[in-house]
User: What shape does this take?
Amino acid sequence: MSDNCTHIVPVHKGDYPDDHAKVKEILYWFQKRGMVENTLSDCALGEPGYRFLPEISRIFDEEPRPDSLEHTLLTHGLELHHGRRRVFHPMEGADLYFVCPECGHDMGWDAADGIAAWYERKDDSPQCRNCAKTCHITEYRTDRGGTEPPWAFSNVAITLWNAFGEAFAPCFLDEMRAFYGTDILVVEVRI
Assistant: This one.
């Protein structure tokens, strides 16, 4: 059995301001609705997280099967990301499509140096190897025209590990956009 997760990442330029306060606000939203436990545990891969409770099923479009509410997975919770910059990508079979917003050239893995420069806070705007224009890293298209999960770049995000459902309810995604005050990217991951 494999693990899966979904990153919900705001689309913004520069570092997201008050990132620690923002993830605390989002955590409170989940806790107030009885969707996650109040204490940290080892329910996420990587950093500690907040274990899901059955009410988490409310953020998904479909009704959960009754047996799915009795989750026994160790990895099953909400992870919060803030502070350092991170690249959120689909991992399994991840190819890099990095399409210039100016000329439409796909730099693919040739964009790795530009991504590294963003990650290290050296340069937020990679240069296209085809037209030589520079654009902010969040302006490059990374989803192969909508047929692949996108890559996202931010210093703040949330990750839901092995959640109860597949498709998020539109009202939940609207709530996340409102929290961040920006558009969001939903990055589906299978490990």
About this structure: The helical segments are 19-32, 112-119, 170-180. The CA atoms of residues 80 and 158 lie 5 Å apart. The chain has a mean pLDDT of 91. The longest strand covers residues 77-88.
